[in-house]
Write a structure and sequence with these properties.
Blueprint lengths: L4 H69 L15 H9 L6 E3 L8 E10 L10 E10 L46 E8 L18 E8 L4
Antiparallel strand pairs: 1-2, 2-3, 3-4, 4-5
Length: 228
Amino acid sequence: MSLDPVSLDRDSEQGGVLIGMMMFGVLAAFVVLALCGRVVGEYRAVEDSLAATRAYWAAVGLGNYVLSRTKIAGVCGPKGCPALQTDYSPPENTFAGEINDMQHWYYMDIGVNYMMQLTYSVCQDNATPVGAVGEVVVRTTFYGNGGVPPAAPPCPAAPVAGTLLPPCAKPASPDPKTIEALRSLTAMRPVELRFCLVADGVATCGKGPAAGTPGGAQLITSVHRPAC
C-alpha cells in the first residue's frame, strides 16, 4: 500500500502549524505573567511610597503643633523662664501629648483596615555644636496596622556633648498582622525635628529664652531622617 505524498505534506504542515501555535501560546503566557508581576510590583511600590509620604507628613504635623503651641503659650508660664534653666523639653512634651489621639491615622476612603500609627519622644537635644541649652528634638517613629508599638527612644539623663538618640533599627521581619500596604513602615526611618528656644529678636541658638520671659520664640535647626 502506497502513501499519498500530498496527504503527508498536508499532515506535516498541520502539525507544524499546531506546534507553532502551542509555542506562541506558551510565550504569550510567559509575557502575560511577567507583565502581571511587574504591574503588581509597581502597584506595591506606589502603595509603599504613599504610606511613607503619609507617615512623614503626620510626623511633620506633630512637630508643627508643638512649635505652634510654643509660640502661643511659651514654655515657662506667665512668670517667665528661670535664669539658669537649660532643659525645656518637659513643657514641649506636654504640648505633644495634647494630640495623643492623632497618633492613629485612619484612611477610611482606602479601606477600613488601613491605619498607621506613630510614637514620639521629646528630648533635650544634646547633639548640638552650641550646647544643649534651649535645644529640643522631637523624634517620631512609625509602625503599621496591627504592629507592636515600639518603645519611645529614651531621653539622655544629663547633657553629654555629642550624645545622640538611639538609632532606628529594622526588625527581623514585619509583623504578620501588618497589612501589605503598610509593611514598609516597620522599617521606616524616623523623622527628627530639631529646634531651639531663643529670646525674642535673637537669631542664634545656644542661650535659651531670656530670663523672666515666657520663652515662646524658636528657631528650627533641622528636619531630617536618621539613617538605619
